Amino acid sequence: MFVGVEHVAIASPDPPTLAQWYVDHLAFRTVAIDGPTHFVKAPNGAILEIIAAQGERNRQRMYDPGLRHMAIAVSDFDGALASLRGGGVNFLGEPYASPQGNRVVFFTDCEGNILHLIQRVNPLPE
Predict the structure, then answer these.
(1) Residues 94-123: what's their mean pLDDT?
(2) Which of 61, 103, 105, 106 has the fewest C-beta atoms under 10 angstroms from its C-beta?
(3) What is the reported pTM?
(4) Which of 87 and 65 is assigned the larger pLDDT?
């Protein structure tokens, strides 16, 4: 009956600009535009719905209640890191290896939403 997450929505004061950031920096592609709402799709099929925000944004910190971050899986960590650095992305720290050997680095999109790259040694169980 339940199949999984179909999409995740991000409220943005400027949906076209944020959608384009994901296209330009993370290889998403625009799959639909419905008025101010933009749908962008990652190479693995994950979809973001970027909707028009209402009101002011609070500063997002790593451990605030709610969604903490969105992890972006990569097959070439060094290449992805170099691409993001070349694109002027804001990093929140230096890359590191987790105790399991996964390579990770945290960064933000153009609106301050927290993301991180991850290259896993072993995929999570299905």
Answers:
(1) 95
(2) 61
(3) 0.91
(4) 87
Which pairing describes strands 114-119 and 70-73: parallel, antiparallel, or unpaired? parallel
Tell me the two tokens of residue 121: 């040694």
For residue 56, pLDDT over 90 is answered with: no
Maximum Cα–Cα distance for the chain, whole Å?
45
All structural domains of the chain, each given as residue ranges with its CATH number in brackets, are: 1-54 (3.10.180.10), 68-126 (3.30.720.110)
DSSP collapsed to 3 states, the chain: CCCCCCCEEEEECCHHHHHHHHHHHHCCEEEEEECCEEEEECCCCCEEEEEECCCCCCCCCCCCCCCCCEEEECCCHHHHHHHHHHCCCEECCCCEECCCCCEEEEEECCCCCEEEEEECCCCCCC
* CA 37 to centroid of chain Cα atoms: 17
